[in-house]
Amino acid sequence: MNRLVILGGGESGVGAALLGKEKGYEVFVSDKGEIKKKYKDVLIHNNIDWEDKQHTVSKILNADLVMKSPGIPDTVPLVKQIKEQDIPIVSEIEFASKYTNAILVGITGSNGKTTTAALTHHILKQELQVGLAGNIGDSFALQVLNENVKTFVLEISSFQLDDIVSFKPHIAVITNITPDHLDRYAYKFENYIASKFRIAENQTKTDYLIYDADDEVIVDWLTKHPVKSTLLPFSLTKKVTSGAYLEKDRIIITIDNNIINMPTDKLALEGKHNVKNAMAASTVAHLLKIRKQTIRESLENFHGVEHRLENVLKINKVQYINDSKATNVNATYYALESMGAPTVWIVGGEDKGNNYEELFSFVNEKVKAIVCLGVDNEKLLKSFSSMVDVIVETQFMTEAVKIAYKLAEPGDNVLLSPACASFDLFENYEDRGRQFKEAVRNL
């Protein structure tokens, strides 16, 4: 019997443990932190061997296969030991994909991947049995085990792509690539770009790569590192013969000379970046033979994902907006770009090597005050203190919201768009967003 060792007892780890057991593996789950009670209960109920708050090296290095949580970097000594023993390491995405014949749609990118994945799923589910997994929703492995669906939409992070071997989505989407997570990639942008493009590395010409043709990083990389996939670009600025483009407020999609067009004025999600997300999702839907009418209606009634430019409440004519999912500068760029009123901006957290320069014009034009919410705000203070009259620091969400409340006047926005990771003060970006919403409701 082959031994499967799983590092990390979270959603993806426990899902893979259950799938592994079903497929005849002897399974062991090991987590350096504490495994949440709900996951422990599942492991115990299914008689799966586990440990937490430690890694027993002898029980790990006798594995035939290791599946590691995407949060564990390759630089960790234990991972190096596993590699030295030539034990293969895979991601949950890689492991689970071996056990399904479903059509796989893989979506990656620095920003927009969650919205695009959720929107794609929303369109497809009107006519197909479809699962949503990866970086979003329930574990992919668990859905492969329990759900008999013919199509999966997978939101995939660069960390998950780092541990793929033969994983191949039939349709791959790259929404955009901007510097992010550089702390995990030796501070080399090209390492991070290469990681994103792994989504297409096993594709053949019968598979599709949908990408943003306005993104110079993507276009440049494709010129130097051609892929085998059939390319379907989307663009707001230029006409494309195959793919999607914008013409006078209409999205035109052309695949195999079959043309559909859709008005953008009825899109439920606002902003240029959401026109791009709509193009990517519609192109996937068109490839999978979803009716034009269904695509149009779905784009008109989809209202976005939690923590992404989410309108929370209006208090004293001030709109409070939760964009906690903006964990990098580019995401915050889109948020500030879409502000149509003077804005009190709550920013900060764990900096991943941010360069704030691209935000300067928006901050000068739209931001009236800044609330820094992080353990170390020095870089923010240095970057922005000359641009706004008021810049204050705090380490508590409740206090940040109270300060913003005092600074905002009727007609203003209060925007939480941190441009940073959340791990210095919060469990994750969801926790940060929920604390923001709770603090706003308690005003």
TrEMBL record:
Molecular function terms from GO: ATP binding; UDP-N-acetylmuramoylalanine-D-glutamate ligase activity
Domain Mur ligase central: 107-285
EC number, as in UniProt: 6.3.2.9
Residue numbers binding ATP: 109-115
Keyword Cell wall biogenesis/degradation: yes
Keywords: ATP-binding, Cell cycle, Cell division, Cell shape, Cell wall biogenesis/degradation, Cytoplasm, Ligase, Nucleotide-binding, Peptidoglycan synthesis
Chief localization: cytoplasm
Annotated pathway: Cell wall biogenesis; peptidoglycan biosynthesis
Cellular component per GO, a single term: cytoplasm
Catalytically driven reaction(s): UDP-N-acetyl-alpha-D-muramoyl-L-alanine + D-glutamate + ATP = UDP-N-acetyl-alpha-D-muramoyl-L-alanyl-D-glutamate + ADP + phosphate + H(+)
Domain Mur ligase C-terminal: 307-420
HAMAP family to which the protein is assigned, alphabetical: MurD (MF_00639)
Alphabetical list of PANTHER family matching this protein: UDP-N-ACETYLMURAMOYLALANINE--D-GLUTAMATE LIGASE (PTHR43692:SF1)
Sequence similarity: Belongs to the MurCDEF family.
Function: Cell wall formation. Catalyzes the addition of glutamate to the nucleotide precursor UDP-N-acetylmuramoyl-L-alanine (UMA).
Record protein name field: UDP-N-acetylmuramoylalanine--D-glutamate ligase
Chain's gene name: murD
